[in-house]
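tool_call predict_complex ligand=adenosine-5'-diphosphate
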Amino acid sequence: MQTPSALSASSAAAHSERPALPMFVSAGDILTDLVRTDGPHWTSHPGGAGWNVARAVARLGVPTAFAGAIGVDCFSDDLWRASDAAGLDLRFLQRVPRAPLLAIVHRTHPPAYFFIGDASADLAFDPESLPQGWTGAARWAHFGGISLARAPLSATLSRLAAELRAQGVRISFDPNYRNVMEHGYRPMLETMTALADLVKVSDEDLRCLFGTDEDTALDTLRAMNPAATVLVTRGSGAATLIAPGETIAAMPPRVEVVDTVGAGDASIGGLLFSLMQRPERGWRDHLAFALAAGAAACRHAGAHSPSLDEIVALLE
Ligand SMILES: Nc1ncnc2c1ncn2[C@@H]1O[C@H](COP(=O)(O)OP(=O)(O)O)[C@@H](O)[C@H]1O
Ligand SMILES: [Mg+2]
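tool_result ok
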């Protein structure tokens, strides 16, 4: 057992050696999903697409942070604890005395949802309060989801993405269509696509964001930034990776699906991991890894972050 003095000595040591700054930062989307389980009964789950991407990358061993703001309430306490358990760098998770952002999922089949959070904590995210020097350590930053459709957070995030890009941090973007993007989202879609080195969309994102068939939507998206690498996922169907000089299609591994919550987040997380940690590999391998990560997430309930072993097992 540690004595109180040993405890204070070890925490002093922890303070003098500050942990290294993260190599990967996902910013913006963090919320609590309140899901109706049956009749008047509801369950809360920590969530947010960007937060899921951060957990996916952290699970694979990359020093990672989720950058955003949560409240000081019971739901936000759960988000804090889950972030800590996921190994995220908590210096990037800000707490402000405002109401939590809630996604009310009142029907799951087919999904029906709305958001509560008119002046909520997420909107108060302040990039100026992030640890000093972090932009110099980050290699990739990820943006997307409803945070880019929630003023004034949306402008804060797109400004941050532009600053990061100017400093040589690579930008990943997954719009992740939600009904709050039905009106007025187009300028943000154009801005973020233009800033991105990597864009991830699902077939459904393409159809809903552009209101056209998938091929026309993809052409419109690519015209916004012809240099960007684009990953198009299609659930259990073939995904396409449009990379500099090559376009590759591949099928995800077949798995027994428990649910597909967070599959897209796991797939872009897997792709980012592969790009950061396996740079010697080619695009075909990067795509295979991303698809295996997405499929591995489907084998468990909720937004499961698959381990490296789970993903590798599906590659073999
Ligand atoms: N039914 C499924 N079987 C196997 N893999 C799946 C399935 N659904 C999703 N995935 C994996 O997750 C990835 C992303 O799923 P998709 O549904 O296209 O995205 P999103 O979750 O963003 O809507 C797919 O490319 C695939 O790798
Ligand atoms: Mg998605």
